[in-house]
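dumping this here before i forget
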Amino acid sequence: MIDTHLLALQLMAAQGALGAFDTLYHHEGTEALPRRGTAGRELAIHATRSSIYCALFLGLSAWAWHGAWAWVLLVVFGVEIVLTLWDFVVEDGSRLLPPTERVTHTVLAINAGAFIALLAMSAVGWAAQPTAMVWQPHGWLSAFLALCGVGVGISGLRDGFAARALFKQQKQAQVRAVEAPVHFGTTPQQVLVTGGTGFIGQILVRHLLAEGHAVTVWTRDARGAAWGFGGAVRCVQSLDQIPAADAIDVVVNLAGARILGHRWSARRQRQLLQSREGLTQQLVAWIATRPRKPWLLLSGSAIGYYGVQPQGDATELAEDAPPQSIFMSTLCQRWEQAAHAAVAHGVRVACLRFGFVLGHQGSLPQLLMPVQLGMGGRLGSGRQWLSWVHVHDLIRAIAHVWTMTESATDPVAAQAFNVTAPGAVSQEAFTRVAAGVLHRPCWMPTPAAPVKLLLGEQADLLLEGQRVVPAQLLRTGFQFMFPDARSALTDLCRPR
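structure:
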């Protein structure tokens, strides 16, 4: 005779393994939900469901829920079913699920229905017993279920923090749109954005739409992007899909694979170059074929252009500082050179060298996580310079360069702008400011050796730095809303 309770626990174990795959591969990987501006409600539902599954995995791993606890279990099952159905509705309304995720969710729903039904049958018998949590371990199965409970609990915390950050960002954007609107030029334009579904790109596109500009986004997933922007943006997978009769006035090039992550093997370096230099070359080649050329190309770059600065060296690096012969610098140089080629077609080109961008998405939430847990501290020596910029100042800087270039009368020539706040600080000082804003201690150092072992050459992004100054922006009259780290972090971390 089949032990239905044991079978239910085995199905729960399968649910835990499949759920971990779905979270890591889809939610954190291909879909990057914590960085998707429209995923706040979905993440909030995920956080709630994860807390329920955490309790179920831990509570059912080695205990039988007798008496009143059985009725509690049945109520929890009912809540989980309602949340699952709500999750389906919210997902379909906010994004286009890839086929693998839709299949995974279907299998998860069927499996959940099976183990809930089996456990409900057990609960009926448990309800007649005296109220107690009865110890009934099942060896390695219990240990695995407990591990699943811990994992899903951590995932729930991650989703909860991400949802909170996205809700704060949306509210902040609504307030700023009224109190401090960003103006891109003097007249509505036809704008092409690459990287429009990324952290910076999503924010930029929404500001452009608010200003009345018509936006086209070049992206690998045109259907998903169009869904995410609520149909307000034309999304294309190929530049050839933009009719020659549709004049594009301004191109904002923000595309590029994520720098920090995989080790910089020869293959990874080729991928990074292709995602920046190669894509920009495609963009310029397309511009060359247009009967009416854009008048402006704003092309992303990074302060990695300057390489690394010796620790203890306080020299300020302006736009005329020389590059270096290391990969991060070479990548930026070739990226910018590809954009410069558009000058030959009469296009004004401005390369924007971004510092570390502070926002509710991007890398800041991961950087602040140890601080929020009370385990922040210096990274390596902590003396490396951190040149950063608040994301709202970055958007304003793009608008500033656009508007300034629109009225320029000098001959066409490529320009470079450091998009960093004037208040560069050491990594340790930045962490101490963050700890102060969050009212947390700052005491746990992270040694450099394991970071270098894990990341190889790209560890320089974290362990070395550059003291970059926005000389061109300041010279042309740009004023930062967040010139120092405390004001920026207070704006991003304060309760709303």
